[in-house]
């Protein structure tokens, strides 16, 4: 039975964009035992990956001691394959029959293509999410049955330069869910990662105030509910009609993969924005660049 070590990003968005490559590994090596090392924030998204043997949240430590800890955790195993998207020393210093490392592309390309190039895959496998029973339970708690159509927005980012102004999110929510809009009468679900919940709450308030109906907005999402937020958007019977994202962690978690045939993601970025990390999936992204 094969053993595979997969080292991916500590950032939520980049970790999500690596799931296509990880999905390829689960299909190419059925029955393989997988160890996944990633940042603590995206770690819950990997808990239901088929064949997962161990999930290692790689919390940063001073003097790069987190890498030493990872090496100590992995050096005692003889790996059949190491896929290291961090291009770290750990991937080189553990016993392995085969190794594959991320390298910066010679030409500009989408991050999904860049990851796929690690194993020479073309076309690149699309990002995906694995939803377990707990995530489905959380999804039901976040978006109760009978809610009807809703607009999911991700108004926050991990730095200010990537954020679309909250006022524009509020105006967009009003335009889409107001009378005569394509989602007339829909609720608004505001999604934000744990560190951005304050800004997400402000966005939720403005989105609700735009309709003078604060109860129309669902509460922001934290790290522990991240798989549930994904589950809410990936159900077989999709209740989310659109998602509007700003480009940061919340955006990476729910906009960047096209989660189902029923969901239409819209990504926003300032001029000169983050093209390599735009929404990705079989139907292609829908992206509008704000000036």
Brief summary:
With 291 residues, this protein is α/β, with parallel strands linked by helices.
Number of strands: 11
Ends distance: 53 Å
Largest sheet: 6 strands, parallel
Strand order of the largest sheet: 8-7-6-9-10-11
Shape: elongated
Describe this structure in words.
- The protein is α/β, with parallel strands linked by helices and 291 residues long.
- The chain has helices at 12-17, 19-28, 65-74, 90-93, 111-116, 133-142, 166-177, 197-210, 226-233, 249-254; strands at residues 3-7, 33-38, 52-57, 81-84, 99-101, 150-154, 187-190, 217-218, 240-245, 265-270, 286-290.
- Strands 8-7-6-9-10-11 form a six-stranded parallel beta sheet.
- Strand 9 (240-245), helix 10 and strand 10 (265-270) form a beta-alpha-beta unit.
- The radius of gyration is 19 Å and the shape is elongated.
What is the topology?
Blueprint: E1 3-7, H1 12-17, H2 19-28, E2 33-38, E3 52-57, H3 65-74, E4 81-84, H4 90-93, E5 99-101, H5 111-116, H6 133-142, E6 150-154, H7 166-177, E7 187-190, H8 197-210, E8 217-218, H9 226-233, E9 240-245, H10 249-254, E10 265-270, E11 286-290
Parallel strand pairs: 1-2, 1-4, 2-3, 4-5, 6-7, 6-9, 7-8, 9-10, 10-11
Label this structure with key terms.
single chain, about 290 residues, alpha/beta, six-stranded parallel sheet, 10 helices, about 30% helix, about 20% strand, elongated
